[in-house]
């Protein structure tokens, strides 16, 4: 790349970092890319670090030594994330979203890339220090959220399927019980999709009693994998404690469906446990 003025270099470096979260970038990469001295690059990174922290965009970590460099860690402070979820909650409270069984129609929201990018950044920020290897979800509605989260963590996505696909080779299948209606379902994961003893972040768009997530947890046991975290976009808050398969400490939720009245079509949604005790 040709040598840039400092102002242009700062803009380009910022974009370079934003598009490579959780990636260690040696200073020599920037020095060679912009034909600049490492001392100049270091000064630029100090400026970018200050902006990231002041604007709540994340942290810019510096690792010293021959194998060192810088790494961008996305963050989402409460002042930025809460208004997004409050706006999402108002959309979820629209009367025509009520579906049989106490569910909400969310497909249109899950199909908005800009919204999913912000939501994915929130979940990624919550588990930024969990040393995760892969992000997992079950097909199909949770896929946009999983990919948005994985993009912020710079990690691959593993899809658990309802039915085995012959094109994926041998697979592990388990039966699990849906916590809401006690019906039996099957989920399957190709053996090549996940390395044994991986640290996995489970992501799902909606959790009622937690049967699907518990099924994924049980499936991961077959791979000797570790559940490093569980992130949910919306949870149903009107489930009795003896019906819920996960405790509050087992997952984070961004929004909570607290009340739904099929007769009056009234829906109440509030921020989830993600915001409890969260710093401003």
UniProtKB/TrEMBL annotation:
Q: Tell me which residues make up the Bacterial purine repressor N-terminal domain.
A: 5-74
Q: Which NCBIfam families match?
A: purR_Bsub
- Xref: PANTHER family: HYPOXANTHINE/GUANINE PHOSPHORIBOSYLTRANSFERASE (PTHR43864), PUR OPERON REPRESSOR (PTHR43864:SF2)
Does the entry feature the keyword Transport, yes or no? no
Q: What is the lineage of its organism?
A: Bacteria, Bacillati, Bacillota, Bacilli, Bacillales
| Iron-sulfur recorded as keyword | no
Q: Which organism is it from?
A: Paenibacillus selenitireducens
Protein name stated in the entry: Pur operon repressor
Single GO MF annotation? DNA binding
Name of a matching Pfam family: PuR_N
